[in-house]
Each structure stands twice: as structure tokens, then as C-alpha cells.
């Protein structure tokens, strides 16, 4: 099913007699395949409104991200939350759509400075599991009362409703960027330097430690006016980064594209975990994995708050150990890439705390009373009695 309008989308969901597999451009199908009739938002495409002076863009959920990027580039603007392109990591083709980005709350390295995808969402339109058209938010940033469905839909992976339109705040492309790089620092020193830099007033827009290859690299990104970038780079070198190398312009941008897309794991046969935790807990997590002899390669983004972890696809690929450790330290692990055997052995998402699971069940009962939207994903289940 590929509706060409929001009305058609609502009619298709109303008429559904069984589970639906909600997809956008198909780039995340291998995360956790859903059994159900395919329902694609790709037909709900096109930029509906773009006001560069107001930093506002409205687009259909099925609009390719590349199309939006192309429109913004013409006016010197961008999606500031830096959505990752997962095609290389997942090893398949597809067309990333803005609805898929929002549904996954997909956010890149700049989150440490500006926030996540959900923080740039101004409004959404979607159709819930009962076929009702819902609108929340608008085209400007403002305080509202009641449910903040805009934030709720970001990261819901199509389990509460099918997005039909999104409104986004965009930002100007900065004049310059530079990256400070240290090589082969021990993990505690590397993450300590990232945290120290983020605590300075020098407005860091990227903070990562790449320990995936033969040479570890610790990187800090600065963006803005050319003079400001030079000044802040010099001050950071004096305060935190003495002896670090400096890379600028296109070379700097390429480093952060690779970080954004977890390119170090492209083409390997490892299982890949996406782990979120408090930055100060990353060292404890890695020490536990090492002590338990779990072989791994790791890329630390967001100052250590986001860890891309690649492990061999043997046994449960560390699922029990990783999730038990995070239950103690705080955080959660998502199994992004794995073979069919491992996906059957380990759930994609971190098991929920009972109180949180009860809250999520209540939300799904409200927005998808029949349990037909992406059942089996994020704990969502098809209801008994649904044909």
C-alpha cells in the first residue's frame, strides 16, 4: 500500500484487518523486520512550505532527505541535527525519508551542541492506528498545553501513528569548521578530554573518540564565523588540547560524515549495537566488557554518551552482559545490525522498566487500539482478535 494523500492513508488504516508494516524509504527494514502488510509513506512526498527567513520548512513524510538537503543548500541552510545515513552500515539501498528520520529521532554528532531531531520539530501530522488524522504543533516554536505529540512521535518508530507531514526548524550553514585531533590517547584520557572541552565556553559541535582502527583518534569540532573558529581553536589548544593537530574545511567535514554514519563498521560481519549512557559511565561499561573477554570495537560520540559498538556474531553477541551492565550504570542498548539467528535471540530494544513499560502500553492502547502498527517492534504487540 502506497497512499498518495493523507486522506488515502487514513482510509487504508481504517480498512486494515491485520498488522501493518510501516515503512518510509526502506532504509531501516533490516533493523527488525515486521510481519504485516507493507504500508509506505513514500507517496506523501514534497516540500510543502519553505520560508528561509523564518528558518522553517514543511514537508511530506515521504520526502527524500536528499531532496530537502538540496532545497536548503540553495539558501545556505541545513538540517542542523545532522541525520545519519544508515545505508552503508546496514548494507542495503533505499531512500532515507524525513518521516523515517523523525520516526527514529535520528540525530548526529551535533546533538551535543544543538540537540536531537525532536528538538527541531515544530509540528507533525499523522494518522493513528484507528485511522484518525491528528495534528499537533505548528510552524513556529512556542509553548503549548496538553500532550506534546510532536516530541512523542519522534523516536516512536511508527508504533503510535504513521507520519504524513512534518514541520522543522532549520539553521544557517556556518562559514567555517575545524577539527582538533589527538592520536592514540588511552580511553580514560580521551573521554576525559572530550568532557573537559564540552565544559568550556567554546561551543563544541562534535566530540568523539574513534577506537575502531589501528590508530585511535580523539576529535573535537568547532563551527561558526572564520575568526571565531580560529580563536576558539587556539583557546581549546591552550586549555585542553595542547599538541593536537588541526584539520579544516572539507577534510574536517569528511571526518564527521564518517562519524555520523558509523562508517568504520561498513562491510564488516560484526553485530552493531547503539548504546546510550551517561558520558561519565562509558569507561566503566568498556572495562566490564573487557573484563568479561567480549571482543569489541567502539566509536564514542557525544562525548561518550553515544557508543557504537561492534562485536562478533557469536552467542548472544554480548546482549545479556551489555544490557545487565547498563541496567546497573544507566542507559540502554539497541541492536541495530545482526543476522537472523541473533535477532531471534536478542530483542532489538532494551527491555523496559515495568513502570515505563506500563506507560508505553497505555500510550499504544490510546493511539493504536487494535495493535496493528508495527507490531513486535519496541514491545508493541498485535491485539488478540485482530484478523
Explain what the structure shows.
This protein has 387 residues and is α+β, with helices and mostly antiparallel strands. The protein has three domains: 6-172, Uridine Diphospho-n-acetylenolpyruvylglucosamine Reductase, domain 3; 176-260, Alpha-Beta Plaits; 263-345, Alpha-Beta Plaits (2-Layer Sandwich). It has helices at residues 6-15, 65-73, 87-90, 98-104, 111-114, 149-153, 187-198, 226-239, 249-260, 282-291, 319-329, 340-345, 354-367, and strands at residues 20-23, 37-40, 47-51, 56-60, 77-78, 121-128, 133-137, 161-169, 171-172, 176-183, 204-211, 217-224, 245-248, 271-277, 297-301, 306-311, 331-337. The protein has an eight-stranded antiparallel β-sheet, with helices on both faces. A five-stranded antiparallel β-sheet has the order 3-4-8-6-7, sandwiched between helices. Helix 10 (282-291) packs antiparallel against helix 11 (319-329). The relative contact order is 0.13. Residues 141-146 have low confidence and may be disordered.
Alpha-beta content class: alpha+beta
Separation, N- and C-terminal Cα atoms:
18 Å
Shape: globular
If helices are DSSP runs of H or I spanning 4 or more residues, what is the number of helices? Answer: 13
Mean pLDDT: 90
Count of individual beta strands: 17
H/E topology pattern: HEEEEHEHHHEEHEEEHEEHEHEHEEHEHH
